[in-house]
Write a structure and sequence with these properties.
Length: 228
């Protein structure tokens, strides 16, 4: 009986420590996420949000944390894939919650990933929070990695067409961009496709068709993965 009592007594501090660690973990995610969501909300310019931006921000952050917590419980029970990097996942979830809120308010027409929440816009602000910049980097780096993972699964012809088109849209410096590096890590060298063109009408037509089908697959994948 004494042994059981001792074991029970020792379990209490361990449970307390676990609870404390979890509280610190969720507080850290909250602290990192809130500045980013706040920038999204204020940058959206939704008339019905004016004067309520702080409340809207809080609602989105809390919903994102709730969804991540719900997912984590499924993962703990083996019902979902484990969370590799919580900061990545909660940023994507928060972005999805933000867009859901825009849709609910009937204000979403087309909100691109490179809108006023882009890194360029953030960098120009005089009131930048370093945590916001870090989370922006985390979000886009995560998206690029997932995109590269997906592109390697499409047909060779569509993959080549996509790489050719992407290569025409970017500059190549000595240090690769996050997107270029993500593709390189999957064995896809964008630079080698730079400058591609064909004088053959049939080849150009096939390229356009493969590129169109490739982007359609990416669009469908991004919706399924909640990246839009």
């Amino acid at each position: 009986m004494k042994g059981n009592a001792d074991a029970s007594h020792s379990a209490v501090p361990e449970q307390s420590k676990l609870h404390s660690r979890r509280e610190i973990f969720w507080n850290r995610l909250y602290t990192l996420l809130r500045p980013l969501v706040k920038r999204w909300v204020y940058g959206a310019g939704v008339a019905s949000w004016r004067g309520q931006e702080e409340d809207v921000t809080e609602d989105i952050v809390q919903e994102a944390i709730f969804r991540l917590l719900k997912y984590a419980r499924h993962a703990d029970r083996g019902e979902a894939a484990p969370i590799e990097i919580p900061e990545h996942m909660i940023t994507v979830i928060a972005r999805h919650c933000f867009i859901d809120t825009l849709r609910k308010d009937g204000r979403l027409v087309r909100y691109e990933a490179d809108d006023r929440t882009s890194l360029e816009h953030v960098a120009k602000s005089k009131t930048v929070d370093p945590a916001e910049i870090a989370l922006n980097h985390v979000y886009y780096a995560w998206v690029y990695l997932k995109l590269a993972d997906f592109v390697v699964t499409v047909s060779t012809k569509q993959q080549t067409a996509l790489l050719r088109d992407l290569a025409q849209r970017m500059h190549f410096e000595q240090t690769p961009t996050s997107l270029q590096q993500a593709f390189a890590d999957k064995g896809l060298d964008l630079k080698q496709h730079q400058g591609w063109e064909s004088t053959d009408k049939r080849q150009r037509s096939q390229h356009a068709s493969n590129m169109s089908n490739g982007y359609k697959k990416i669009e469908a994948w991004s919706k399924e993965a909640s990246l839009q």
